[in-house]
Amino acid sequence: MRFPADFLWGAATAAYQVEGAVREDGRGESIWDRFAHTPGKVAGGDTGDVACDHYHRWAEDVDLMADLGLQAYRFSIAWPRLFPEGAGRPNSRGFDFYKRLVERLRARSIKPVATLYHWDLPQALQEAGGWVNRDTAYRFQEYAAAALRELGDGVDDWTTINEPWCAAFLGHALGQHAPGLTDWPAAVRASHHLLLAHGLAVQAFRDLMRRDQRVGITLNMTVAEPAGDSEADRAAARRYDGFFNRWFADPLFLGRYPEDMLAWYGAAGALPGTAAGAGAPDWPPPGDMALISAPIDFFGLNYYTRTICQDDPHSPFFGLRTLPPRGPVTDQGWEIVPGCLRDLLVRIQRDWTRGLPVYIHENGAAMRDVLTEDGRVHDTDRIAFLRDHLEAAGQAIADGVNLRGYFVWSLLDNFEWAWGYAKRFGIVYVDYATQRRLPKDSAFWYREVIRQNGW
Fold this sequence. Notes:
eight-stranded parallel barrel, 13 strands, 40% helix
């Protein structure tokens, strides 16, 4: 297996999951600080207060990346570190941290890939309505422009929003992520305002960026498969695909929301200006879709598993239920289905990106890692997972998909959101008591893959 000569090999993290130092150097509170400190919200009562202490160990971590041969590092910027109140006066010490990080990455020949939003909304903006409030999209545009002005000398590739589906629906409808709401109309509004924020940021970037800089967005996507051969199950899978995939990809690339989902949300009274059963209104506001669908320079895909869907007329959740996995699973309970990555990449190019550069921005697995007496983690299961998914990615390239790079999730074991520190995704083991970093066998395997550009 060999990849194209210019294929980009990297690893990814996110600010709240690794940085720690949540009260240092002027950083403001985020919705995840508030959520994690709310009893019962995170497994084990864990928080990101310390996490991997990357805020203090960033130089060591960059040197580790270089030792592993990484060509790129995808990190996120903590909005409340730059703007503690979400807007207004910027915090120079926050900008200085990311400037130092970027400078060291470039000094070690590692390409910085910055994500502007990986779910850590400033709490001050949440108290003004958060993503349910349209004004938050404009505050994001201001933050994005400031980040580009201050860090643009060192960062060429920018992602606006990471996984808006999670921020909108896990955070506002299902209550599993910050801010912890269970309000479907709020979730639908939040989803639109997240996409609007992306469009406004792209607009600001086009006015400010150099010609060699690029801006894109990252979506998490699944393959929704019917549980059986019935037309009812196929329709159920189509509805789930609309909820998870098309609700975000269609506006970005086709300039419209899917009609079937507008009708569904309208009938449920979840769209702005509707009551239950009223159908879809004249929504969204004029001009929004043109902003949201403005051309981007690349697309980021996060893929982990598929979803098996069965029709269930009695379920309030889109008239369907999702079934348990049918094959081997990760420690997260997610089914390992590498072939779906190939199918998804082919579909993304056919239905949406049409030849635009695509990057796998996240792919990886939580496994039951065991630290042995010799100080090693022999994670052969993770190596098999990565190899099989990279093989699927290579097959998609052979099918003509313009796939340009792969970022393993994640570089470090870290604070895994609502699971706290109970799940380990990293190719580097973190001893949270001492903050010692220990590359797992998968890290050494990945280093060799990068060296050979395949295997």
